[in-house]
Design goal:
heterodimer; A: five-stranded mixed β-sheet; 12 strands; 16% strand; disordered N terminus; B: mainly alpha
C-alpha cells in the first residue's frame, strides 16, 4: 500500500514537473528572438554606421521619416505579437488535453460582449493611429514645397545609365551626382525631376530617400536634403532589362565650397589637350560622337553619357567598373566584357587607335 | 468439368489494364479526381519553380558570381514568378476548391463537369506552352526564348519596343 501511494504521488509530481518544464521551455522559445535582437534595439538610427546603403543610417529627411515610421510600426506590431503569442502559448499549455479528459467535451463558452467589443475597438484604434502616422509621412515627403534656392537636378534614366542635368547651372553629367550638404537650420535641399528615355527605372539611394520610379512620359519629382557629407550609393530599383543590376548610383554630398568648386569645373568645356589630338581624331572618325558628347567639340550625341568631364568620375559604366586606364581600355575595346548586353557597341578599334582614344579620354578632366 | 455446363459468370477480378486506369484519369470529369489532378500538377510545377529559385540563389551567393549569365538569370526569375503564381499557388487553390466545395455543400459534382475538366487541361496546356518557350532561342524558328521581363512584365520593357520577339 505504501508503495502504491508512493507511485501515485510520484506520477502526480511527475506531471506537475512536466507542466513546469514545458512552460519554462515555451517561455524560453518566446523570449529567444528578443534576446538575440536586443543588440539591434540598443543601436539607434543615428548611431548605426553607414556603409553607403544602410537604411538604418538615414542622412536625409525623407529617409529619416521613413526609418522613424518603420520603427514605430515595428514597436506596435511587436507588442501585438507578444500579447497574441503569450495568450496563445498560455492557452495551448494550460488547456491541453490530459488523460482524464478523454471522452469529455471541454467547457462550452458562448462569447462575451465585453471581450468582443474590446478586441474590435482596440485594433480599430491601432489601425487609425498607424494610418494617420503613415499619411503624415507621405504628405510631408511628397508635398514638400520647393524653396527658391534649392538645387535642381533633372535625372533621365537610360538603359543602363543615369543622365544628370542641372538646368540652372548648365551642367550635364552621368552616373555620379554631386549635391550640396544641407544644414538643418538653413536647409538647402536638392529637388530632383525624374524622366526616362526608354523603360521604367527607379531612383533609389537608401540612405537619402525612398524609391521613386522614372516612368517614360510621366515626370516624377522627389527631393533630398542630406545632412552629412560623404558618398551615398544607390541603384536602379525597377527592372529595366539585362543590365538592370549594373546601373548604380553614386551621390557625393559635398560641403558648400567643394560643391561650388565641382560646379565650376563641370561648367568648363572639354579640356583641349594638344597631346591627345590623335585620340580625338579617332573619337570623331568612328561613331563615338554619334552617341557621346564632349562640350566644346563637334561631338554632341545624346544616346550615351556625356564625356566632357569623364575623369572627374570614380567609376565608369554606371558603377560597373572603376575608372582606371585598364578598365577604360577594356570598356572601349569590348563593352560586353564588363557589361554584357550593354547598348554600347564594340567599334573593333585597332590597338593603336584604342590606346589613342583612351589617352584622349584621360585628358577629359 | 465438361464444356457444356453453364457456369455462373465470375466477377472479373483481374487488375484493370493500366491503359484503362490512365484513360479514366485523363478523361475524368469527377470533381474529386480533377482536384487531385490540379494538386499533382501544382506539385510538379512547384519542383520546377523551386529549381529556378535555386538557380537564382546560387547566382546570388557571391558577388560577381557568374553561375548563369545575366540573360539566363533574368529568365529564371521571370519564369519562377510566373510558375509559382499561375501554376502552383492558383492550381493548389482550385484543386482544394474543386475537391472540397461540392462535398461541403452537399452537391453531387460541380455544375459543369466537362467544363471543369476542360479548364484543368487548358491550364495544364498553358503551362506546357510557357515552358516550351525554353526550347526557342537555340534555333527553333519563331519560338523566341523564355520571357525575361519579370513575371509582371511592365510596359514599356515588356512591350514590343523593348522585347522584340518575346
Amino acid at each position: 500500500m505504501a508503495r502504491n501511494s508512493g507511485v501515485k504521488n510520484g506520477r502526480k509530481e511527475m506531471s506537475a514537473r512536466r507542466t513546469k518544464s514545458v512552460l519554462s521551455r515555451c517561455w524560453q522559445i518566446v523570449l529567444l528572438p528578443f534576446w538575440s535582437t536586443s543588440a539591434l534595439w540598443a543601436v539607434g538610427t543615428d548611431g548605426t554606421p553607414s556603409n553607403g546603403t544602410n537604411i538604418f543610417s538615414p542622412a536625409s529627411t525623407p529617409a529619416k521619416s521613413i526609418a522613424d515610421l518603420s520603427i514605430f510600426v515595428l514597436v506596435i506590431t511587436g507588442i501585438i505579437f507578444v500579447v497574441v503569442f503569450a495568450l496563445l502559448s498560455y492557452s495551448v499549455v494550460k488547456f491541453r488535453m490530459r488523460a482524464i479528459d478523454a471522452g469529455r467535451e471541454p467547457a462550452q463558452v458562448y462569447g462575451s460582449t465585453q471581450i468582443e467589443l474590446a478586441w474590435t475597438i482596440i485594433p480599430t484604434l491601432i489601425v487609425v493611429v498607424l494610418f494617420l502616422a503613415t499619411a503624415r509621412v507621405i504628405h510631408a515627403v511628397q508635398d514638400a514645397p520647393e524653396p527658391s534656392d534649392a538645387v535642381e537636378v533633372t535625372v533621365i534614366g537610360h538603359q543602363y545609365w543615369w543622365e544628370f542635368r542641372y538646368p540652372k547651372l548648365g551642367i550635364v553629367t552621368a552616373n555620379e551626382l554631386h549635391i550640396p550638404v544641407s544644414n538643418p537650420s538653413h536647409p538647402t535641399p536638392t529637388f530632383v525631376q525624374l524622366l526616362s528615355a526608354d523603360t521604367d527605372h527607379s531612383f533609389w539611394v537608401p540612405e537619402l530617400a525612398g524609391k521613386t520610379d522614372l516612368i517614360p512620359n510621366h515626370p516624377n519629382r522627389m527631393w533630398v536634403d542630406p545632412q552629412r557629407t560623404g558618398v551615398f550609393l544607390g541603384q536602379c530599383a525597377q527592372y529595366c532589362g539585362t543590365q538592370h543590376a549594373k546601373m548604380l548610383l553614386r551621390i557625393s554630398v559635398d560641403g558648400p565650397e567643394d560643391f561650388a568648386t565641382w560646379v565650376r569645373a563641370q561648367q568648363k568645356p572639354g579640356v583641349e589637350d594638344a597631346g591627345a589630338i590623335a585620340g580625338r581624331g579617332v573619337f570623331e572618325r568612328n561613331a563615338c560622337m554619334n552617341c557621346h558628347a564632349v562640350a566644346g567639340t563637334p561631338a554632341d550625341g545624346r544616346f550615351g553619357p556625356d564625356l566632357t568631364h569623364l575623369m572627374s568620375r570614380t567609376t565608369i559604366a554606371a558603377g560597373a567598373a572603376e575608372n582606371t586606364r585598364d578598365n577604360l581600355r577594356l570598356w572601349i575595346q569590348n563593352p560586353s566584357a564588363i557589361k554584357p548586353s550593354s547598348l554600347m557597341p564594340s567599334m573593333k578599334l585597332s590597338d593603336t587607335d584604342l590606346d589613342a582614344v583612351v589617352s584622349y579620354m584621360e585628358t577629359l578632366h | 468439368m465438361s464444356s457444356n455446363v453453364i457456369t455462373a459468370s465470375v466477377r472479373q477480378t483481374d487488375a484493370k489494364p493500366w491503359v484503362d486506369e490512365l484513360h479514366q484519369w485523363l478523361a475524368t470529369v469527377d470533381h474529386k479526381r480533377l482536384g487531385i489532378l490540379y494538386i499533382v500538377s501544382a506539385l510538379m510545377f512547384l519542383v520546377i519553380g523551386g529549381v529556378e529559385a535555386l538557380i537564382i540563389r546560387i547566382q546570388l551567393m557571391h558577388s560577381h558570381n557568374n553561375f548563369v549569365s545575366p540573360e539566363v538569370f533574368n529568365r529564371m526569375f521571370t519564369m519562377h514568378g510566373t510558375t509559382m503564381i499561375f501554376f502552383v499557388a492558383m492550381p493548389f487553390l482550385f484543386g482544394f476548391a474543386n475537391y472540397l466545395v461540392p462535398l461541403m455543400i452537399g452537391a453531387r459534382d460541380m455544375a459543369f463537369p466537362r467544363l471543369n475538366a476542360f479548364s484543368f487541361w487548358l491550364s495544364f496546356l498553358g503551362a506546357l506552352l510557357l515552358y516550351f518557350s525554353f526550347l526557342g532561342g537555340s534555333g527553333l524558328y519563331g519560338a523566341g526564348n523564355a520571357p525575361d521581363v519579370g513575371w509582371w512584365s511592365y510596359a514599356p520593357l515588356g512591350a514590343r519596343a523593348f522585347s522584340p520577339g518575346a
